[in-house]
Known about the structure:
The complex is a heterodimer.
Chain A: H1 19-28, H2 32-61, H3 71-105, H4 114-137, H5 168-196, H6 209-241, H7 254-288, H8 295-308, H9 324-336, H10 338-352, H11 361-384, H12 386-392, H13 396-426, H14 432-458, H15 475-505, H16 543-548
Helix pairs in contact in A: 2-3, 2-4, 2-15, 3-4, 3-5, 3-7, 4-5, 5-6, 6-7, 6-8, 7-10, 7-11, 7-13, 8-10, 9-11, 10-11, 11-13, 11-14, 13-14, 14-15
Chain B: H1 2-18, E1 23-24, H2 35-68, H3 87-116, E2 125-132, E3 135-140, E4 145-148, E5 150-154, E6 164-170, E7 175-178, E8 186-188, E9 194-198, E10 204-210, E11 222-228, H4 230-241, H5 251-259, E12 289-290, E13 295-296, H6 299-307, H7 309-312, H8 325-336
Parallel strand pairs in B: 1-10, 2-6, 5-11
Antiparallel strand pairs in B: 2-3, 3-4, 6-9, 7-8, 7-10, 10-11, 12-13
Helix pairs in contact in B: 2-3, 5-8, 6-8
Amino acid sequence: xxxxxxFPEDAVKTEAPSLPSKLHEWIVTVDHKRLGIMYIASxxxxxxxxxxxxxxxxxxxxxxxxxxxPPEVFNRxxxxxxxxxxxxxxxxxxxxxxxxxxxxxxxxxxxxFPRLNAFGYWMFLFGGILLYFSYIAGEGLAGxxxxxxxxxxxxxxxxxxxxxxxxxxxxxxxxxxxxxxxTTASAINTIATIISMRCKGMTLARMPLFVxxxxxxxxxxxxxxxxxxxxxxxxxxxxYLGAHFFDTQAGGSAVLWQHFFWLFGHPEVYILMLPGFACxxxxxxxxxxxxxFGRAAMIGATIGIGMVSSSVWAHHMFSIGMSTSxxxxxxxxxxxxxxxxxxxxxxxLGTMYGGKIRFATPMLFCIGFLFQFLIAGxxxxxxxxxxxxxxxxxxxxxxxHFHYVLLGGLLFTLFGAIYYWFPKAxxxxxxxxxxxxxxxxxxxxxxxxxxxxxxxxxxxxxxxxYTYAAGRxxxxxxxxxxxxxxxxxxxxxxLAWNIIRSLRNGAPAGDDPxxxxxLEWSTTSPPPEYNFAIQxxxxxxxxxxxLKHPEDPDWRYE
Amino acid sequence: MGSxxxxxxxxxxxxxxxxxxxLHSVGNxxxxxxxPAESAYNVSLLMLAICAAIFVVVGGFLxxxxxxxxxxxxxxxxxxxxxxGSNRIEIAWTVIPVLIVLVLTMATARAVVEVQNRRMPADxxxxxxxxxxxxxxxxxxxxxxxTANELHVPLSTAAKPAVAFLTLDSADVAHSFWVxxxxxxxDLIPGHVNTMWIDPRQAGTFLxxxxxxxxxxxxxxxxxxxVEPPADFDKWAAAQKLDAASEPRLESAQSAFLSLSxxxxxxxSGTPAKGxxxxxxxxxxxxxxxGSGRIPNTVENLRAWVKDPQAIKHGNLMPNMxxxxxxxxxxxxxxxxxx
Lengths: 558, 339
C-alpha cells in the first residue's frame, strides 16, 4: 500500500545544516507545513503552561479553607488559564492543523498567501508572549497586581480603571487584539486557499470533510472576531481616553460588554470545537474502514452549526435579567444548535456501524470523544433550559460542562489527530503502547476531575472561588476532582515522552501507515517543501481509495 | 498571610458547628424550598429524564457498535461493505430530535413565565439588595431598616403566603445573588436594576454565595437568608428599627468610636456615624458572621477583625486602621454593645 503515486520515492537529501542556520530557516519560513508545526508546537507549549496553572488551582481547592494560594494569585491563575486555553491553545492548534493539512488535502503546494501565513503566526506568538509578559510588567508604576485577574470573559465594570488599576488588564486587552489579528489573517488565508487552490477534479463536493469544516470555521472567525476586537478597543478607550462605553459610574453599560463578548464568545466555542469534529471526521472513517456516512448531511450540519451558533450568545446571560421573550428565544435557539450537532454524532455512529473497527490510538481517542461529547452535548441542552440555567450558570456545573466540551471533546480529538498525523509530519510512528497508556490515564483522570464537578455545581458551588468552607457538601468532590489531575498529568507526560522517543528513534512510518484515503497520504512522510511533484487529480472524495480499489472506485457512486 | 487565613478557616469551622440549628448550608438545587427554585426543579426533572433516555439509547448503540463491529484477529482482510449513507435514516434522526427540542422548549417557556411573569401581591415584602465588593447591603425601604449580609424574610405558609420581592442593584461591579434552595441566580449589575422574588416554605437559615466573579474576595461573599415565622420576623424588624444601643457605661467607648475614622465608612443609627461605604453597624451583634460569612461574629473575632481585617479576609476594602490597644478595647467594647 505504501506506494507513492504522485511523488517519486527519491526525496532530495542534503547534509544536515548547523543549528543557527536551522533556526534561521524556521524563523523566516513561509512554508505552510513548518508554520503548521510551529503553531502546534506553540499551542502544546502553552497547553503545558495552562495545565500547570490548572493543577495549582486544583491543589488549592483540594481541601476546604486551603491556604496553598492567596486569593489574588488564584484569581490571576484562573484568568490566565482560561485566556491561554482558549486563545493560545485551542485557536492556534486549529490554525496549525488547518495550515498543515489543508494544502496537502486539496493537492496544493502551499497556502494562498504564504507570507500572510507567517505574519499570522508571529502575531499570535507575540500576543501570547505579551500576555505572559504581564507577570513581569503588569505591576505598572502604581504597583497594582501583576497578571490580569478579571476572568477570561472580563466582565465590565471590573475591567474599568476604578476596579482594575495598574496595567495588567491592558496587557490582556492588547494581547487578545494582536491574537485576533493573527487568527483573522490565518482564517482569510485558509478560505482563499480552499476557494482557489484546489487541485484538478477537486470540486467542493469532493473536498475532504476536514477541509469543509476548516472552511466553515474560518468563515466564522472572520465574522466573530470583529465584535471581540471592537469590544476590546472600546475598553481601551474607556481606560485611557475617558470614554464611558462600559463605565457604569459614568452611565456606561455593563451589559453591553457582555453582548459584545458573547457575540464572539459563543461562536468561539464552535470555532474551537469544529476542528475537533474535522479531525474525528477523518479518523473515524479510516479506522472503521468505511466512508463517512451521510457526507452531505455532515456538511449541511456543519454549515447549520456555523449559522445557528451566531444566534445563541445570550444563553450565557440568562441571569442578567432579560425579558421573558428573550429568555425563551435564546433557550429555543440554543436547543436548536443541538440538532445539527446530534446529526453529526449519529453520522459518526453510522460510519462505525457495519465497519471493521481498528482500535489504534487515534481511534481510541475518537471513541472517547464520542462518549464524552455525547454527555457534553446533553449537559449543553440542560443549560439551554433557562430555569435550570438560572440555577447552575456560573457554578461548577458549567465548569464541568465546558471542560467536557473542550477537554473531553476537543482535546481528545486533537490528541487523536496528533497520533494520526504525526507519522505524516515526521516520518516516524508514535508508540502504540505509550499511546494507549496516554489514552487510558487521560480517561481516568478526566472523569475523576470533571464528573464530580457537575454535582458540586448542583449543590451550590459557584465557580471562580479560591476557597470554600467545610460543611457545604463540596469537600469530597473537590478532593476527587483534584486527584484526577495526577492521572491527567501522567497522561500528558506519556504523550511528551512518546513524542521525544519517537523523534529520536521511532519506527519509520512510510507514506501511508493507516491505509487512508485522502491526498496527504499520497506524498512522502514528511512531505517535501512543494508537497506534490506532480499536481494530483481526483475523481471522488476518497482519491486513494479509488487508486487502491480500481475494481470498486468511489466515483461510481458520487 | 498564610497563617492568618488558616486562623480564619479554623474560626469558620467552629462557626458551622455553632449555628448548625436550622442551617441549610448545602445549596442542593434538587431540594427546593421556594416556588422559583421549585419551578426550576420541576422542569429539570423532565429535562433530566429526556437527557438520560437519549444518553442510554445513543450510548448503548455506540457501545453495541464498538463491540459488534470491532476488528477481529481472524479476518479475511477484506474491506467491509462501503455504505455512503441513507436519506431515510438522516431524516429519522433529524425529526426525532426536533420533536424533543419542541417539547423541551415548551416546558422551558412555561417555567420561565411561571417565575418571571408572576404578579406580585400588594403586601409583598419589598427589599433592596445592593452588591458591594465583597458584602451585601440589605435595605427594607418600607420598614426603614438597613442591614448587611443577612436577609430576613417571613415564612410563607399555605394559610398565609408571604412573598419577598427583591430589587437588586450594585454599588460597584457585577455580582449575582444565588441561594440555590430558594431561587436561581439573578445578577446585580450596576446601572441595570433587576428584580426577583422568593416565598420560602421552610424556616431556617439558607446559605448562598455571590455567583458572579467580582474580584479578589469573590469567594468570601456569602449571603444568609433567614426565614422565620411572621411573629419572629416582626420582632426582628421591630428591634432593627430602633436606634442603636447607647449605654451610659460605654459613653467613652462610643465617643472613641465616633472620633476615629470608622464613621467615614460605617453608619450607626442615632449617632453622627453616617458612612455608607461599609456595612451598617447599628445592630452588628444581631448578625451571625463578620466579613460577609468569613468568620462567626463573636467578641474575640470582632476584636481580631477590627485589629487587622486584612489578616482575616485578605484584599477586602477595610484597611488595617492601626488602632492602639486602648482604642481597640474601646471600639470593640462599643461595637459589642450594638445588639
